[in-house]
Amino acid sequence: MPARLFLSSGDLTADRRFEFARDLQLKGDLPAAADLLMQAIELAPDFTSAWFTLADIREQLGEHEAAVAAYQKAQTSDPGDRHGAGLRLMRLGAEPLAGMPQAYVQTLFDQYAPRFETSLVDDLGYRGPALLFKAVLSVRSAARKPAFFKRAIDLGCGTGLAAAAFAKEVDHFIGVDLSPRMIERARATGLYAELDVADMLQGLRARPDASADLILAADVMVYVHDMTPLLAEVARVLAPDGLFAFTVESHAGEGVVLGEGLRYAHGASRVWALIAASGLTLERLAPASARSEGGAQVPGLVVVAVKR
Length: 308
Ligand SMILES: C[S@@+](CC[C@H](N)C(=O)[O-])C[C@H]1O[C@@H](n2cnc3c(N)ncnc32)[C@H](O)[C@@H]1O
Description:
Shape: elongated
Largest sheet: 9 strands, mixed
Number of strands: 11
Low-confidence stretches: none
Bound molecules: S-adenosylmethionine
Structural class: alpha/beta
Helix content: 40-55%
């Protein structure tokens, strides 16, 4: 993942204290790092990066309440919550599970964009687009229909890996992504007829009824807490016989959980129920891991639903 985000306090001395504190943190001297961060915060009370790092250290030291208080400061001092303090609060059980801050996702992927493909494909063995390709081909072949799509929408298109997997099967690809830096990379592939920098739900809302034959979401539903509004838009935008194919991380229980990697994992029975409620027909819901982490396969699902 990208290097830790740094938001300057605007005070040179406070910023320097922060840098020393980070050095100490990386060397493992957590109490000394916390002391220096407190000094930085005294100089610049709204220093978001210092609050966030202090919270992280408090968490590592097992100081639950102090960690929660510092994450809350990091959250309120940056209304967009680019560090994702809200997600840490959810993980600590201090806030109910909710959606991801958009500014956090955008900042994360803007930072990640230059190294995204090397890191995900080479280091984590990412295969989300290949899983979707295989599943879509198999659903089309079982229905005795050609796997050719005039108009496709790639939700959370990133650098364009899903469009590359489906390039020969799609005439007109539209990509939607929150991160302008990821979109720049997608544009450079030349695979997309249109690209929107937008939240995928807003991107879909701007599309006419029955205007897509295929909608893809490769490794993106892991950033969606509640699939219901998105599934409703997908069902509206798909043309009859159109497919929605996505990968998602999963867990053995019910409902949605926020994993250690700060991505949501969805229970299979919940995905099944939400698709049924959206009016789409489930064609495939199979266990499949789209990537590894720490040498282990991350549990996941590959899902294909059709609009009847
Ligand atoms: C892990 S990457 C996957 C990219 C691409 N689909 C692939 O398979 O390589 C997730 C992408 O989803 C985008 N994303 C996450 N949440 C989003 C949202 N709500 N709306 C639009 N894009 C989103 C991120 O910016 C990022 O580019």
